[in-house]
Amino acid sequence: MYIPIWILILAVIVILYFLDKRFGRLEGKINRLENPDEDVEEDIEDEPAVDGNNLLSYQANICIEPNWIKIIRLCFPEIKSGDEAWKFVEGLYKDRELKLKEGEGLFQKNFNFIEFYDSVSGLNPIWSEDYKGFLDEPEIDGKMFHPRGTSRGPNGGKLWDAIHRYIRISPFYIGFEADIPMPDVGVLDKDKFFKFPYYEVTNFFTSVQKNYDAFGGGELMVKTFPKKIQELFDKYEIKYDPWYYDGYGDVEPNKKLVKSKWLEDNGIELYDQKMKSHTFRAQYCSITIRMKFFDPADR
Questions:
Q1: 187 CB contacts (<8 Å, ≥6 apart)?
Q2: Lowest mean pLDDT among 27-36, 122-131, 232-241, 274-283
Q3: Residue 15 above 60 pLDDT?
Q4: What share of the chain is helix, strand, coil (3-state, %, to 5)?
């Protein structure tokens, strides 16, 4: 089969651009290792800080479950209960002027990504179950009640804004996009009502797996997280909920602590209980992460 030379050239350019971008990110990750005293909060939306000696790669399955009823109540503080919020939503669908159809927007949907991270090459493709394709960043944007791509329409007050304003959803945060006439503004910090230290968490499990791999440490139930991560959890009101463990529903979890000098030196406590996934809950969202680790021999 003959392939025109211009298609081959274009393919090479695209591949080189992709590799340059990914290796640039890897360089940034390694550079941050040389400046460990940087403000930890700034890392929340950043790339993972990678240990240059860590040859582990991973696949992380991510499920984001927004609490849509609480988000409705956030937008409309006068709504005092979940039942009132549901009645409010039912009223929206019945309003003929709004022309809403159930299932067209993001409301009541969960979102799934699969992050593949290769620590040798720095390649970091991310699959979106929602878009059915690979993305540079694990994020979804759209409107709560309207299909993706519909126009914002005229400014019609608070109700109109809540229905037509774009919302961005990722493992790092959930927030409303800035509704101002400037391109690529994204989501302002004041409009992020949920934050999660995703890369700090995945780096934690990867580091534990590397340093305590005799029992598959990255898959064990956590009793105590490192101080910096716990401080972020406290700040953003995030609770670790290790409910989905091996044997869930049939046996009680094993709460015997594993012993390791490395764990002790790093202020980490693990139960000798293998997890199927790790769930983190906050007021407006829950995130579940299931990690699978690889080393160069696995490839």
A1: 168, 173, 175, 176, 177, 178
A2: 27-36
A3: no
A4: 35, 25, 40
Digit-coded pLDDT (tens) for 126-149: 999 999 999 989 999 999 988 765
Contact in structure between 106 and 169 (CB atoms under 8 Å): yes
The answer to whether residues 232 and 284 touch, using CB atoms and an 8 Å cutoff, is: no
Q: What are 194-225's pLDDT values in tens digits?
A: 999 999 999 999 999 988 765 577 889 999 99
Buried/exposed code over 99-123 (b: 16+ C-beta within 10 A; e: otherwise): ebeeebbbbebbbbbbbbbbbeebb
Strands in 43-110 per DSSP E: 57-66
Q: Are 105 and 144 in contact (CB under 8 A)?
A: yes
Q: Say what the pLDDT of residue 217 is.
A: 78
- In angstroms, rounded to a whole number, what is the distance separating the alpha carbons of residues 163 and 89? 11
Distance between CA atoms of 63 and 142, rounded to whole angstroms? 17
CA 167, CA 186: separation in Å to the nearest integer? Answer: 10
Q: Convert the pLDDT of each residue in 145-162 to its tens digit.
A: 887 655 555 444 567 666
Q: Are 107 and 144 in contact (CB under 8 A)?
A: yes
Amino acid identity of residue 102, one-letter, is E
User: What SS3 state is found at 284?
Assistant: coil
Provide the token pair at 212: 């305590």
Task: Please state, in angstroms and as integers, the Cα–Cα distance from residue 125 to each residue in 27, 133, 137, following that order.
Answer: 17, 10, 9
| Strands in the chain per DSSP E | 57-66, 111-117, 126-128, 133-135, 140-143, 166-169, 173-176, 192-195, 220-224, 239-241, 269-274, 278-281, 285-294
The model's pTM: 0.79
- Decide the pairing of beta strands 269-274 and 173-176: unpaired
C-alpha span between 299 and 296 (Å, rounded): 5
pLDDT tens digits, one per residue of 225-253 = 999 999 999 999 999 999 999 999 999 99
